[in-house]
Amino acid sequence: MLQFTDLPACTGGTLLQAPTAAAPIHQLLIDSRRVGQPAGALFFALRGPRHDGHRYLAELYGRGVRLFVIDAEAALEGDLAAFPEASFLLVPDVLTALQTVAACHRQQYRLPVVGITGSNGKTIVKEWLAQLLSPDELICKSPLSFNSQVGVPLSVWQLNPTHTLGIFEAGISEPGEMARLAHMIRPTLGLFTNLGTAHDAGFASARAKAEEKMQLFKDVDTLFYCADHALIHEVAQAQLDSRRTARFPWTRQRTLFDGQQADVLITIHDASAERTVVRVERAKPLPQEHTFTLPFADEPSVENALHGLTVLLWRQVAPAEIQRRLDRLQPVAMRLEMKQALNDCYVLDDTYNNDLAGLSLALDALARQPRRGRRALILSDVLESGLPAAELYKRVAAQATAHGVERLIGIGPEISQNQAAFAGLDTAFYADTEAFLTSFQPDQFRHETILVKGARRYGFERIVAVFQQKIHGTVLEVNLDALVHNLNFYRRRLQPGVRLMVMVKAFAYGSGSYEVANLLQFHRADYLAVAYTDEGVDLRQHGISLPIMVMNPSPDAFQKLRQYHLEPEIYSFELLDAYLAAAQEGPLPAIHLKLDTGMRRLGFAEEDVPLLCQLLQRNLGHLRVASALTHLAGADEAQHNEFSQQQLAAFHRMTPQLETALGYSIIKHALNSAGIVRFPEAQLDMVRLGIGLYGVEATGQEQEALRPVSTLRTTISQVKTLPANHTVGYGRRGQAVDHDRRIATLAIGYADGYDRRFGNGAGEVLIRGQRAPIIGNVCMDMCMVDVTHIPDLRAGDTAIIFGEGLTLPELAQRVGTIPYELLTNVSERVKRVFITE
Ligand SMILES: *Cc1c(COP(=O)(O)O)cnc(C)c1O
Questions:
Q1: Ligand 1 pocket: which of 502, 672, 686 to mutate (most atoms <8 Å of CB)?
Q2: Is 698 in the pocket of ligand 1 (CB under 6 A)?
Q3: From atom 12 of ligand 1, which residue's Cα is the shortest distance away?
Q4: Do 462 and 513 sit in the same domain of this protein?
Q5: Which are the contacts of 598, defined by CB distance < 8 A and separation ≥ 6?
């Protein structure tokens, strides 16, 4: 692990106020809002056109950050004496230093690394390649599309000794950028996805662009690409030294294949609306032919999947196994996904970035969609074009018109100011996303194909979510930024060096295991825990490489623990015997010993410890213990403090005996979310964070400091008047009403996880910011609310079941349960939508 004092040698910078003790670097920080554990965070004060990281030094210092990289200009102006104990690395250019530190980190690892570049599909190809290889490898990959000059260093920094393969994407917009990315990624294998025809401001010609991108691959052992992209093929031949780099091209054209310009010929054999059957021929090493079915039909997805398929062929994965893995490919959100939306509309979801090049690609995709009614574009301010605004929006308008767009909704201050540019179109403008959503009326959109294209900061996922909500009726919106906020709240409470295990059991408390786990992996949690083996397998198949503890391992699934490298919790002698027996057939992952100190649920009791120690000692050769844990029965309530202390005392009596028997030290952990807040002195080596991550502070004392993560929304299916003296719903339980009332029927019921106990006035929902009580019983798929006091409601309007303004703790109290139950009850049939701000 790099130390702060290694940095002058690595970057050529100068140390000011050098640290007196060892200062290992745990996190590279570029955004002052993302401080987790401040110990070991190294802040890079980057400068941008509208941004200067140096402005945040004092704030970060106040939050405990002690390691900073700054530039000379700042050092002259600032008064560093105001930051006692802080250490500074002074460099000429902070971005270069960030990249150099990442490059030094990368150099510590010798493992195969796949570098991916190309005009389109980098992120999807990366995600799919990771999905396809995850049964064989523990993979470190770029999160989301972290492929820029800043994204790549953060991606590469995630490499750790457990990984067996890296997959990183590289994106550039100007000459000279690729050499810097290549230096950090140091790929040993290369994959060139394709080359778009889009006009790129930064390059003299398409060939110049191809040559620049090819620089990523100058030292790879093997390069994969599709030779049908003639320019890629040409430049690969011209630029790569064939003695150093093997080329592994595939093609869809027999002429290229028979002329031996490509290793693999792939022809489309059959295609339907949902799948594509391809025939694959190879001439080398032996002539062979196979047929595979891809679970996609659209052209870009097929090409992206074929890149992955080629890599598997090259790795000589058996054809039947390749097919199994292809069958499991999951669509990757966030990139040009076509989604069915309200009122027979379709939404092309590109809510990820918004620059001119990206816009023109997205408009191409829109124009390729079959025509059904009008084409509409919902567009945020276009960023980083380098053009004066008036000129920029004139170009945007011309492009939109050229692609058949008839309707434009502009969101953002800049586009609103330049509305004159869009005079030929049917237009509406809003200052921000919130303003659009507030005035959103479902009937304004019918039979349209709508491209939703926005820079990330506009959070256009929410727009897509409301369009989709009208289809799915009910969605659970999971705010990933809130989740990170909560993670950092708990991190700040940890003593230095205490590790963090995060509980993602029960579908991550209802929030979606894989997405949450992926985020936690990026934010460097140390461990994950799931309840059952299959939950762990699922995470591995989605490319999660963090260590995972399985709390209820069943002996018939021990082989899966080995195959997917999952570490079981062992809580009884029966389970231990079974594990030891299985270990005779080959080494098994390390175990976690559960000690029962008073919960009386699972675990070894104190009187079991001597026998346990004997067994461990007898099997030192084929069993490794990673940790010992216990669980407090009443960590959240002061009335149980004495009992909790007794539990901890018992734990402290038991664990030294285990360590003595083993002859090495193990990780010891006892605290859940409530315990982290209430027993800071008992954090030991690790803590286990659960409900707090999802926004519920179990002790109730610090609820204010957490952000709600989940919002459950549904729609109104119908609004009707209920005359006096009538009742509502089954069993005629809704009390006969004394005067006429307006009743709204909501598209959520107990099969969606909306508890029946909310019926007959016990529960309320939020509509237009006002509360509406449940009237009558909650049915299987719907329920009714009294909306007499909320005027002008219509079918399609939104109701919030829980979220901001109607919290889980309040609702749980109303029906005599705990927030955990309400959260985990939300049925898997409810679509999860992930948003970031
Ligand atoms: C679920 C669980 C936790 C997390 O508990 P929270 O109250 O959700 O923080 C911790 N430890 C064990 C053993 C658990 O099963």
A1: 672
A2: yes
A3: 631
A4: no
A5: 632, 633, 643, 646, 647, 650
Q: Is 672 in the pocket of ligand 1 (CB under 6 A)?
A: yes
Which pLDDT value is given to residue 32? 78
505 is catalytic: yes
Q: Which atom of ligand 1 is nearest to the CA of 631?
A: 13
CA 136 centroid distance within chain: 22
User: What does the pLDDT read at residue 535?
Assistant: 95
Domain residue limits at 637: 479-705
Domain boundary among 676, 705, 734: 705
- Asked whether residue 258 falls in the same domain as residue 399, the answer is no
Distance (angstroms) between ligand 1 centre and the Cα of 241 equals 55
CA distances from 119 to 79, 100, 148, 196 (A): 45, 26, 13, 5
Distance of CA 690 to the CA centre of its chain: 18
* In a shared domain, residues 620 and 537: yes
Q: Is residue 102 part of a domain?
A: no
Same-domain status, 404 and 516: no
- Rounded distance from Cα 776 to ligand 1 centre (Å): 36
Task: Report the CATH number at residue 221.
Answer: 3.40.1190.10
**Beta carbon of 673 within 6 Å of any ligand 1 atom:** yes
Q: Is 453 annotated as catalytic?
A: no
As for how many domains the chain has, the answer is 5
| Bridge partners, 549 (sequence order) | 529, 567
Q: Please indicate whether residue 678, judged by its CB atom, sits closer than 6 Å to ligand 1.
A: no
Catalytic one among 209, 213, 453, 505? 505
Output the pTM of the full model: 0.66
146 is written with which tokens?
């972290």
Beta bridge partners of 291: 279
41 lines ligand 1 (CB under 6 A): no
Q: What is the pLDDT of residue 578?
A: 96
The answer as to whether 281 is a domain residue is yes
- Residue 733 in any domain: the answer is yes
Compute the distance from residue 805 Cα to the ligand 1 centre, in Å: 26
Q: Are residues 24 and 156 in the same domain?
A: no
Find all residues with CB under 8 Å of 476, minimum gap 6, and list them.
Answer: 510, 511, 710, 711, 712, 713, 826, 830, 831, 832, 833
Q: For ligand 1, what atom is nearest to the CA of residue 692?
A: 9
What values do phi and psi take at 337, rounded to 5?
-105, 140
Check: CB of residue 224 under 8 Å from CB of residue 191.
Answer: yes
pLDDT attached to residue 78? 63
DSSP letter string, 199-218:
--TT-SSHHHHHHHHHGGGT
Does residue 668 line the site of ligand 1, with CB under 6 A? no
Annotated binding residue 780: yes
Q: Would residue 290 count as lying in a domain?
A: yes
Question: What confidence score (pLDDT) does residue 296 get?
Answer: 83
How many Cβ atoms sit within 10 Å of the Cβ of residue 51? 9
Residues 697 and 785 in one domain: no
Q: CA-CA distance, 13 to 10, in Å (whole number)?
A: 8
pLDDT along the chain (837 residues), means of 10: 92 89 88 76 89 89 92 72 89 96 96 95 91 88 84 91 92 92 98 77 86 96 95 94 93 91 91 86 90 86 94 96 88 63 84 67 76 88 78 89 92 95 94 91 87 85 81 84 92 92 94 88 91 93 90 94 95 96 92 96 96 96 95 94 96 97 96 96 97 94 92 92 77 66 94 95 94 94 94 87 93 95 92 76
